Amino acid sequence: MAACAVNLPNSITLSRIISIPLLIWVLSTSHLSSLHGQRELIASIVFAAAAITDTVDGRLARRRRQITTMGILLDPIADKLLVCSVFIVLVEFNPHIVRGWIVAVIVAREFLVSGLRAIAASEGYAIQASDLGKLKMVAQVVAVIAAILDHRWWAAEWSYGSFRFVLAIDLIAKMSIWFMLAVSVISATDYFIAFWSTIDRSSAARRQSVVLSRQSSAADMSMAVGRR
Q: Considering only CA atoms, which of 2, 26, 27 is closest in space to residue 14?
């Protein structure tokens, strides 16, 4: 049973969780230098690889028909652990871009969505990830990588002959953080609306069931009295 649960897609999901302490170590250690950007490049590669697994494991699970309860539980947990962990570390690593209150909003959003999904699941409903939620994840990946690189380079410049190209990493980092924050709040609102409409329909159905059962009971009692 365990061998069936830990299949290839689930192993990839687990690798995303295992990469979290490695990423934290890279961003926090003094054994890697930022003189030439080694630490920033390694952290960006580790995070990008972990983020890619979020797409790979889902596609493999559907293609191989290996969707398991373990995978359904682990996948969102791995995503939230990765995102929340790296943003918390970035508050210290690059406070110029990542402020504490921004991370508080992001973490609160993840807890809110997880709570809404758990309540909906307990009622027998599943709230699927919306396009806003997927856009939020992409925005988070861009914001994290830009914030990491911004720690070493405010801008990157390439020149070839008379051609000169400058990439404003600091500007990209600031814009991506604010865009990610806006999408996070909007997608959380979208989840709440979907949750409320789902639970409201469930409550209405329950109320109708109770009314019908009471009416049936009243009809049974009246028939019993009539027979007497």
A: 2
Collapsed DSSP state (helix, strand, coil) of residue 35: coil
- 97-149 pLDDT tens trace: 999 999 999 999 988 888 887 787 777 776 666 788 889 989 999 999 999 99
Q: Among the residues of the chain, which ranges form H helices?
A: 2-5, 8-28, 38-63, 69-93, 100-122, 131-150, 169-227
Residue 70 CB coordination number (10 Å): 17
Q: Examine the pLDDT at 186 and tell me if it is beyond 70.
A: yes
Q: Which residue in the block uniquely carries the two structure tokens 């469930």?
A: 202
CB atoms within 10 A of CB 71: 23
Cα(9)–Cα(14) distance, integer angstroms: 9
* 83 residue type, one letter: V
Query: Of the candidates 212, 59, 185, which has an alpha carbon nearest to the alpha carbon of residue 112?
Result: 185
